[in-house]
Amino acid sequence: MTDRMPDLPAEALTDGQREAAAAFQAERGVPVFGPFTPLLRSPEMMQCASRMGLYLRYNSILPLRISEFAILIVAREWSQQVEWHIHHPIALKAGVAPETAAALAEGRRPTTMSEDEALAYDFSLELQRNRAVSDPTYAALVARFGEQGAIDLTGINGYYALLAMTMNVARTALPEGAPRPLPPLVP
């Protein structure tokens, strides 16, 4: 499949896109990449998404391991190869067990999850698949991470679903030579 929204050449950028790309680089220390490449077509939306992402990745009340685990859940649910490619090594470094990530990649419920991961898994799967969270799942998550944790985990699910949808629409390509990390899911 061809990338529908590849990098824009510098000379083709509008003033708004140029300003947004410069702000992105100043804030994150890297040029526009991954999901932000297609989002640059809407510069203000890209900047808003970037700021939300910075909060959810680095300032959420949730431990990084749980945030990254939830991102892998979303990437798997949306079969988003680039999102998985970016976040899988981060999740492993943050403490997600390789066998836990492998089960997610295969579309299976991991049997090696910690208690906190199981809470995030149940909450995220219910939210992604049912478009709601049951009372017992909500109560268990709030008992562990508080109401802010429930909102932050909801935000992670929604934000990374937005990025996954954006990259799926844009057909954002994996880096040259990178294998497709997620096998197809059989419905």
Overview of this protein structure:
The protein has helices at residues 15-28, 36-39, 43-58, 64-77, 81-94, 98-105, 115-130, 135-170. It is globular. The two termini are 22 Å apart. The protein is an all-alpha fold. It is built from 8 helices and no strands.
Quick structural overview:
65% of the residues lie in helices and 0% in strands. The chain is mainly α.
Please give the number of β-strands: 0
Largest sheet: none
Poorly predicted ranges (pLDDT <50, ≥5 residues)? none
End-to-end gap: 22 Å
Strand content: under 5%
Quaternary: single chain
The number of helical segments is 8
Global structural class: mainly alpha
The dominant shape is: globular
**Mean residue pLDDT:** 96
Portion in helices: 55-70%
Q: Order of helices and strands, N to C?
A: HHHHHHHH
Radius of gyration: 17 Å
SSE layout:
Elements: H1 15-28, H2 36-39, H3 43-58, H4 64-77, H5 81-94, H6 98-105, H7 115-130, H8 135-170
Question: Key terms for this structure?
Answer:
single chain, 187 residues, mainly alpha, 8 helices, 65% helix, 0% strand
